[in-house]
Amino acid sequence: NGFDAGRFAPVRDPARRAQLRARFDVSGDAPLIGTAFKFRQEKRPLLWVDAACRVLEKFPACRFVMFGDGELLEPTRTYIAEKGVAASFVLPGLVRDIEHCMPALDLFVLSSASEALPNVLLEAQACGVPVIARHVGGIAETMADGVTGMLVEDDTAQALGDAMARAVADPA
Fold it and tell me: Is residue 50 left, alpha or beta, with left meaning phi > 0 and alpha meaning psi from -120 to 50?
């Protein structure tokens, strides 16, 4: 299991980055937090939404994008609508050019209950995007905790959301 790291790179030009963010209706200064996964139970998209909602309580300008498809995509859309936060979320489905989407993000978050060694965390970091993920499986091997991302020990939306909020509050 591998990926072509040459396809993934940061976008440093502010005008180009603004173009990428406009694709998701995000203004230049609003924090954009994203994920990419198969919408299945083990990826826990509803927990991801709950964590994002905790961030919205502190940072209402934040926007969220969830890439992917799967059996829980429509239930996730419904859940977001029922929580009254649909204006803060974009769920574009499966995209074929994730390498052009990730550099628009300020933060990449993975909420999986289990993982082996997720390429998506390597891809996000190759795009210059810091990552937050639960400390399960081989995730710790994909990042330098406290340098290129944060590992979350507690298995709750609160812990994940609090880590996200800390990153938004202190981008460094």
Answer: alpha
Sequence-distant (≥ 6) Cβ neighbours of residue 24 within 8 angstroms: 32, 63, 65, 90, 92, 104
| Residue in 104, 121, 135 with CA at minimum distance from that of residue 28 | 104
Which residue type is seen at 10?
P
Q: Judge whether 101 and 22 are in contact, CB under 8 Å.
A: no
Q: What pTM was computed for the model?
A: 0.95
Secondary structure letter of residue 122 according to DSSP: H
* Helices 73-82 & 45-58 angle (0-180, nearest 10): 30
Cα separation, 148 vs 146, whole angstroms: 6
Residues listed for the chain: 172
The per-residue pLDDT for 3 is: 75
Rg (CA), the chain: 15
79-120, pLDDT tens digit by residue?
999 999 999 999 999 999 999 999 999 999 999 999 988 999
Residues paired with residue 102 on neighbouring β-strands, in sequence order: none
Residue 1: predicted pLDDT: 63
Q: How many CB atoms neighbour CB 106 within 10 A?
A: 18
Please state the rounded mean pLDDT for residues 75-81. Answer: 98
